[in-house]
Specification:
The complex is a heterodimer of chains A (98) and B (143).
Chain A (H helix, E strand, L loop, with lengths): L1 E3 L2 E3 L1 E6 L2 E6 L5 E3 L11 E6 L3 H7 L25 E4 L2 E3 L5
Antiparallel strand pairs in A: 1-5, 1-8, 2-7, 3-4, 3-6
Chain B lengths: L1 H32 L26 E8 L2 E7 L15 E6 L6 E7 L22 E3 L4 E3 L1
Antiparallel strand pairs in B: 1-2, 2-3, 3-4, 5-6
Classes of the chains: A mainly beta (98), B alpha+beta (143).
């Protein structure tokens, strides 16, 4: 059984029934959860972390209370924000076993 | 300088070639001990990430290139750096990965030159964030 998270910005930890099953950090954001799921109810836990790009842009806003520090300037205040979080679509797919 | 570049090119080329050969025999031993690809694929940000031999990965300021089916991940080898002794790097170490999770150490592909204080590859010099390109026409890797 495959769990496909679709689009993720930028890294996701997948836990099934409390057990860390995968750290997905590149496309396709897909993991075989077959070995860890059980019949009946299962708990799926997806935690997503993004890069600090949006935080850096946020810190460049005129009224920002800065929380980051860089030795050289990085992003301008009007730089486009980076899509972040669990964007999806999230799908469960079953595959035929041979 | 030209001589040095050529030498480094050759070192790189041969190191990566050797890697490809070594891997095919290595994979059989490894696969029996490891979960199948796609089963357990985890690393923990903030914790030390180990290579397939159980050693901390030494490829700081890293980059990745893909050649054929294999990814190569390389960067500064900091195994002798302690923040006090003035050693910035101990050459460039390279790993090969098929799945971007399991790192096979393929060794130091650009060795440091500790006996030559004027060499840019001397461990006290700031060799930093190396970049390697594959030159398809000549088959060389260029750093």
């Amino acid at each position: 059984m495959l769990l496909d998270l679709g689009r993720v910005g930028d890294l996701a930890e997948v836990r099934v029934n409390g057990q860390l099953t995968g750290t997905l950090w590149h496309a396709p954001f897909r993991i075989d959860i077959g070995p860890v799921v059980k019949p009946g109810d299962n708990q799926l836990d997806v935690r997503v972390a993004n890069l600090w790009v949006n935080r850096l842009i946020g810190d460049m806003q005129p009224d920002a209370k800065k929380v980051t520090f860089t030795v050289t300037p990085t992003y301008r205040a009007n730089a486009p924000l980076r899509p972040s979080g669990l964007i999806g679509p999230v799908q469960l797919m079953t595959v035929q076993s041979r | 300088m030209i001589n040095m570049l050529n030498r480094r090119e050759m070192l790189l080329g041969s190191a990566l070639l050797t890697t490809g050969l070594r891997l095919s025999s290595f994979s059989e031993q490894r696969d029996s001990k490891r979960p199948a690809v796609g089963m357990l694929r985890c690393f923990k940000p903030g914790e030390i990430w180990l290579d397939t031999a159980g050693k901390p990965i030494q490829a700081h300021g890293a980059s990745i290139i893909k050649v054929g089916d294999l990814y190569y991940w390389y960067g500064e080898n900091k195994e002798r750096t302690d923040g006090v002794n003035g050693i910035w790097h101990w050459g460039v170490r390279c790993y090969s990965l098929r799945d971007l999770y399991n790192w096979d150490d393929v060794g130091i592909i650009i060795p440091p030159e500790p006996d030559n204080p004027s060499s840019p590859l001397h461990p006290n010099k700031g060799m930093d964030r190396p970049h390697i390109l594959y030159h398809a026409e000549s088959g060389h890797f260029v750093c």
